Predict the 3D structure of the following.
Amino acid sequence: MAFAPILSDLGVEARRFEPGGDSCIAAGRAPALLQIGREGWALALVEGPRSEPALARLRNELWPALHVVALFQADESGVHRETLQGRKRIGEAVTFRGMVLAARRREEVLSPTATVSKFDTNAGGWNGEPGQPGYAHFRWMRRYVALFAQPKAGARVLDFGCGAGWVGIEAARAAGNAELAAFDPSPEMVRNAEKNARESGVSRFVGRTGFGEDPPFSERFPTVLSSGVVSFSPDQERWFDGLARCCESGGTLVIGDLNPASRGMEHRRATRPLLPARELNALTAEAARAQLERRGFVHECTAGYQLTRPVPQLAHWSDTKLHGALSPILLAWNRLRAGPTSDLGAFDSWVQRFRAP
Ligand SMILES: C[S@@+](CC[C@H](N)C(=O)[O-])C[C@H]1O[C@@H](n2cnc3c(N)ncnc32)[C@H](O)[C@@H]1O
């Protein structure tokens, strides 16, 4: 069977692979698009070699219904699987020659179960490691977002999707060790945030598990921060409703995330067939602002931080090949350029401040 190694790799029974009939969701097009029953995989078959930009275009066409999570290449040398984690040979050559894009539904990739599992598994990776070349940059970004809130002395802080908690911790410290509430879907992340808060001297900390779409705090807070979270939400309307519900009237809301409109992000979408779902799911600063203005929030300021291509590529190269030799210079460059702007094209991340209605 031409696709046996691929189906076996995906854990799909070969007999389910039935071109035509009910299983075929886009017959007669090139590429053939086939959906495979219960296991939830959709495969896009592309015969012959294809360039990376051509595969990236196909991936963009499948989004937002489907998200491509693996790419199989079948040629005379065998069948190889490529994911964001790397490339691996999975079988001998088969009769099919070409590419197979393996996709899952967006809702499934961004589902609560997938989110908890992903962040629980890699909670340490999001904590940052002191002494590593990128650590100063990692902590600077969180401090930048925290201080963008201009925290007021004693005002309680809520970190909405806290991860390891650094944004909330920096804000609470800037507010004179104010009380910090934080939540995240991942229990492991909340545990890390609690430990980090304690070790940073933020003694009044309440951590809970929960999602932004249904926040686990019923009270409202004078300072709310959410950094790098909305791009993971499968239901951004509900997520913004949840965010708005947590803000005290007249209080400060700071939200930041990836900038899908930066030159670097646009280049990645045009040239890379495999990308994390959040990069496709991310909102522009304008779209996020419109969501909040519809809910009565008043915009105060938008800033760009984290310079786009080639800075992240140089930082990666510096960290992995030069033991971080360039990291201080790149960080200094980022710090110099970060700030209020109406042209976000040069930045991979945006942050905005609003006044709550
Ligand atoms: C990129 S990390 C950012 C963590 C932290 N805010 C920071 O800036 O370091 C994204 C975090 O969002 C959380 N998350 C994902 N989906 C979420 C949702 N729907 N509601 C709230 N948090 C979510 C994840 O568990 C993860 O800890």
Remarks:
- The two ends are 61 Å apart (CA to CA).
- Confidence is low (pLDDT under 50) at residues 20-29.
